Fold this sequence. Notes:
Blueprint: E1 9-13, H1 18-29, E2 33-38, H2 54-64, E3 67-72, H3 78-92, E4 97-100, H4 120-145, E5 152-156, H5 161-166, H6 172-192, E6 198-203, H7 210-216, H8 239-251, E7 262-264, H9 265-272, H10 284-292
Parallel strand pairs: 1-2, 1-4, 2-3, 4-5, 5-6, 6-7
Pfam families: adh_short
Protein name: SDR family oxidoreductase
InterPro entries: NAD(P)-bd_dom_sf, SDR_fam
Amino acid sequence: MTKPLTGKIALVAGATRGAGRQIAVQLGAAGATVYATGRTTRERRSELDRPETIEETAELVTAAGGTGIAVAVDHLDRDQVRRLVERIDTEQGRLDVLVNDIWGADPLITWEKPVWEQPLDAGFRTLRLAVDTHIITSHYALPLLIRHLGGLVVEVGDGTKAYNDDNYRLSVFYDLAKVSVNRLAFTQAHELAPHGCTAVALTPGWLRSEAMLEHFGVTEANWRDGAAKDPNFLMSETPAFVGRAVAALAADPDRARWNGESVDAGSLAQVYGFTDLDGTRPHFFRYHEEVIKPGKPADDKGYR
């Protein structure tokens, strides 16, 4: 059978690891051709100094059933982004899905310190990595995307609008970064609507990224052991879950109903019926409101 995204062209900006990698893979599993970008290659690492590479991501996309194309891009470099989009235009003549997942600022964050105790250089670098990269990428990519009706932009962040509105994110710069990403989807939704395209802000729940697994001293095979460090870790989810959320949005002919919305992977799973790799549908943000926020004992029963 033809896969739902066969013939579709996607750009996942920030696809080296974590959510970005699996968004690329799950789009590939649905049949898409995916340009996977990032700064870490087999020849050179970014300042994060992690082992995951964009070449690995592209190979995973192809193995999943799509076509993966790795392109080394620093999304703060306007010329690199412009050349990337020109290449996609030359090779494909269209762009159907843009995923802005660029981040890479975790080591820069100073947690639980007031603004007057925050290191400004690191803070402003955080905002550049989290916000400027997304704007630069959209600036160059959207003229290609709007050539055809039905294009989709996904701004990937951390926390829905409702969650971020009500919760202090433990750092003024992190807080601003994540609020801004959601707002970018809202503004782009208004700009894209006249062109028959859609923009959505999307967040995973508690993401079991490569770095998060290392932080908890576990692997994907024994991830539940991480609950010894934080009992609520039992509500975490694989990056494939948010990847399947993006694939579901991209395959939905009625995706415009989400235009300008801020949604989470758990909520979309209830609508589209996809699951995490273990067959469950973790709904972290409902769990946060009903269990974590009121201080109840950790228990994932009824939330997966």
